[in-house]
Amino acid sequence: MSALQWALLILSVVIVVAVVVISRRDRDADPLPRRAAKPRPADAEAPPSRTSAEPVREQLDIFDDAPVDDIGPAESVSEPRPARRSEPAHDAAPLLRPSIKPVAAEPTSPSAAPASIVDPTLDPLTGKQYDEFGVGRPRRRTAPLLDATPSGADPAAAAPANESTPSDVAPPVSVPAWVRSAPSATPAAAGTAAPLPPPVEQKIVALLIVERNGGVITGNKLHSALAAQGLVFGAKQIYHRLARNESVFAVASLTKPGVLLPAEATQFSTPGLSAFMVLPGPVKPLNALHDMLATTQALARALNAEVYDSKKQPLSSETMRALQADVEAWARAAQV
């Protein structure tokens, strides 16, 4: 607090102490006679003449307009009376009104019922009761109640929410019989689903193209014959018959690693070629077989070579019919 605030606080305390001392001194010197409450006529033009004790009465009535009783507890006024106008007294100096507000009463516990709190001060000399400032009659105050239970409300309803009571516990939920006996969410059809068909067993058909006189086939002649049959150089560095960008059958060199590089055609030579097909493929099995048989025979004529089956037997009409029957049987078994 600043020096100015301290000065104002000290000055206020001095004024209050002076007012209390002066009022008690006047009260001890001239005790007030008992004054009965008389109704004032409504048509009275002016209040009666004041006595010498009127300044003291004005001082005692500074906080309450009700009549002041010398002895006895405070009485509540049943009927309001018209307010009277106080004329300033010229024979006595006006007293300063205390500037300190009364301290609020401490709140009672929530469980206590509302009650009127009266804190009178008993004067040890005169035996009279005064308020906390020593001036006027005791006043009746009602202490504020915090979290009080409203009138007519059930006290059990005002219990704290965190206290568990038997009513707070939820009753057990009974499950209907039809829910307990309901089947599981898994569809019954899932257990009886048809098994997946077994994977189709692949079939490999291979033919050999060998130079007729046991010589070699040069690279330039070989690549020209392959290109003339519409074969395309591609995956694994060999030539393929393509259908829908998939290999129907392929042609590779008999010598390992079997590659046929066009860039090395001038330095390359091979004793023969191997044509092979893996079924199933992008086209029907019989169509793929007929295409491979026709292509290998055309290459053999262009390269002065002979065509042999996988058993190294010369390809004949009987061999081709047997190979076709074998592919048809496989297609029926594989259902392709």
Automatic annotation (TrEMBL):
**Alphabetical list of Pfam families matching this protein:** ZipA_C
- Gene3D superfamilies from the UniProt entry: ZipA, C-terminal FtsZ-binding domain
**Residue ranges with Low complexity bias:** 104-116, 148-173
List every stretch annotated Disordered. 28-173
Q: Which InterPro entries match?
A: Cell_div_ZipA, ZipA_FtsZ-bd_C, ZipA_FtsZ-bd_C_sf
Per UniProt, what is the membrane topology? Single-pass type I membrane protein
UniProt KW RNA-binding keyword: no
Put simply, this protein is called Cell division protein ZipA
